[in-house]
Design brief:
The termini are far apart. By secondary structure, the protein is mainly beta. Helices cover about 5% and strands about 35% of the residues. A hairpin with an 8-residue loop joins strand 24 and strand 25. InterPro entries: Crtac1, FG-GAP, Integrin_alpha_N, UnbV_ASPIC.
């Protein structure tokens, strides 16, 4: 993304910003709930890492949070741009300060990295890693104790030579291995680049897979299988994707592929959603299907079912105001049409300009993610912010947003009160519990600066931090294909309230996560949990006590509780 904004676009932005402006003080006064205390401690935690480089690295800057050594604490893989990417092992004490150890000279120590996503590709129960790059993308097979093996050749995956900026994965019906969607940005080799030269995206559907090393006398069925991604399909036209997400938008059990695109470089483009019927070539939803054109500087996608009706809402970040898309249920149910209404203004979620300072210029949004950071049983929305480089028509001091959710579905900006209003250029991010204390922490990759690491110390009070609401953390397991149950839904009932979560791979901005699913419970001391597994089958209800880590295995009548190791004195 280069620094070119026309006067007409600038004027439009300033008019939008003025019409939507409201003060941070008024927002703070109308939020009576808990505000998390987020303490930045990247350096004391041993996290020293910068995402840097020329134009190709104005975008990207992702992080993966996932357990690579089977201790159930999330480790880190950080993109570096022209610097080497870095793997950090989580050495945090449960409930204590955050600590990480950098592992040097691994196969993951790549230059030209944009971001990454963890997913178990070969169904061995150990997470693998997809690394997006300027140049050849790489698939890495995960092994014990954070070991990784480059597997493009073994899995017949053509990493290409594009500028890849988006990724998502889904287990399609009847497939043993995940379908991989690759989103590409500008085709730098095309005449006239970068204007109107967006690179096509890619869909890598797996072939049947081969047996891995079946010995004489051993059946092939008893041996592990090797994925085969030799048959790739173009997803054209491409409109400079910066995020994509497989999503079950209509509760049909079949994922579609949402793509958010950067209008800066495309010509005649828009936001996209691909229909992916099993065994058929992908096709775009069109206006005839109910898909209405939306043209934004699309940067990131976040999905959540905010009202627990089973239909997901989407937060789309952009330059200027964030979109919060809500499905038109009548059209969806009666005509199966993906028609959406933007509810960001009504819900207080536009996040269109900085919430502190006197700069009225529009914000630049990147990563977006729904999580419950104050454990009050209402989802919050976190957005990273940061000027592209030196775009004078956009805010220079543009701190990340923390939009805390209210029970009525609206949001209140509390980034300043929570402690995250730093002067940095945020890009990718992840929200997860690094020290197993039931409080969600935040890591942000910043362009041309060190990463930000925010430890959640509890809820703000007049005398420092105090404990907040109750919580549950849930992990799903099943045998055979799709061990981590990607595509499953969780239903969590406390009293008269129902919350839902869906397991997916993709979205955000160049950043993925895997591990326990976090659910805030508020004052509830127990919850009833059911799982709709990826094939549609529902589990029996499990009655669970709050403030536990719980593993649900498919087909089992009881759950497994995981207890973090006792912190060393």
């Amino acid at each position: 993304m280069r620094t070119l904004i026309t006067p007409s676009i600038q004027t439009a932005f300033l008019l939008i910003s003025a019409s939507l402006s409201f003060s941070h003080a008024s927002l703070a006064q109308d939020f009576p709930g808990d505000i998390p205390v987020l303490i930045e401690q990247s350096e004391v935690a041993g996290l020293l890492h910068r995402y840097e480089g020329p134009w190709e690295y104005f975008v990207g800057g992702g992080v993966s949070t996932f357990d690579c050594n089977q201790d159930r604490l999330p480790d880190l893989y950080l993109a570096g741009g022209e610097n080497k990417a870095s793997l950090f092992i989580n050495r945090s004490q449960p409930g204590g300060e955050l600590k990480f150890e950098k592992i040097n000279n691994t196969p993951l120590s790549l230059e030209r990295s944009i971001g990454s996503y963890p997913v178990d590709i070969d169904n061995d129960g150990i997470l693998d890693l997809v690394v997006m790059r300027v140049g050849e993308n790489q698939l890495f097979k995960g092994g014990p104790d954070c070991s990784f093996t480059a597997s493009n050749i073994a899995w017949k995956f053509n990493g290409g030579n594009a500028w890849t900026t988006a990724f998502s994965a889904s287990f399609e019906q009847g497939q043993r291995f995940p379908t991989l969607a690759i989103g590409n940005y500008v085709d730098r080799t095309a005449p006239g680049s970068p204007w109107g030269t967006c690179h096509p995206n890619e869909l890598h559907r797996p072939a049947a897979g081969a047996s891995a090393g079946a010995s004489a006398g051993a059946s092939a069925a008893a041996s592990p299988e090797i994925p085969d991604y030799s048959d790739a399909q173009p997803l054209a036209p491409g409109y400079c994707a910066l995020s994509m997400l497989f999503t079950d938008w209509n509760k049909s059990g079949t994922d579609a592929l949402r793509v958010t695109n950067d209008r800066q470089y495309y010509r005649g483009g828009q936001e996209q959603m691909w229909r992916l019927d099993s065994g058929r070539y992908p096709r775009l939803f069109s206006t005839a299907d109910g898909w209405e054109p939306l043209i934004i500087w699309g940067m990131g996608i976040a999905e959540a079912d905010l009202n627990a009706d089973g239909y997901p809402e989407y937060a789309l970040t952009s330059m200027g105001d964030t979109k919060l898309q809500v499905l038109d249920l009548q059209q969806a149910i009666e005509e199966n049409r993906p028609s959406y209404e933007d509810m960001a203004w009504d819900r207080g979620a536009t996040a269109h300009r900085p919430y502190i300072g006197d700069d009225l210029k529009p914000s630049t949004g990147w990563h977006s993610q729904f999580e419950d950071l104050n454990n009050d049983a209402s989802l919050d929305l976190f957005i990273t912010k940061g000027n592209v480089e030196n775009m004078n028509d956009f805010a220079g001091f543009d701190p990340d947003n923390l939009l805390l959710g209210r029970p009525d579905g609206s949001f209140s900006e509390q980034g300043l009160a929570a402690g995250i209003a730093l002067d940095r250029r945020g890009r990718g991010a992840s929200i997860t519990d690094f020290n197993a204390d039931g409080l969600l922490d935040i890591i942000v990759v910043n362009r041309r600066d060190n990463v930000s690491l925010f430890r959640n110390a509890g809820m703000a009070s007049g005398q420092g931090a105090r404990p907040g609401g109750n919580w549950l953390k849930l992990e799903l397991q099943q045998s055979g294909a799709n061990r981590h149950a990607i595509g499953a839904r969780l239903s969590i009932k406390t009293g008269n309230q129902v919350q839902t979560r869906r397991l997916h791979v993709g979205g955000g901005h160049a950043s993925g996560d895997a591990g326990f699913v976090h659910v805030g419970l508020g004052v509830a001391e127990r919850a009833t949990v059911r799982v709709q597994w990826p094939d549609g089958e529902w589990s029996a209800p499990f009655k669970l006590f709050a403030n536990h880590h719980v593993i649900i295995e498919r087909g089992k009548d009881t759950v497994i509780q995981w207890f973090p190791p006792v912190a060393k004195p």
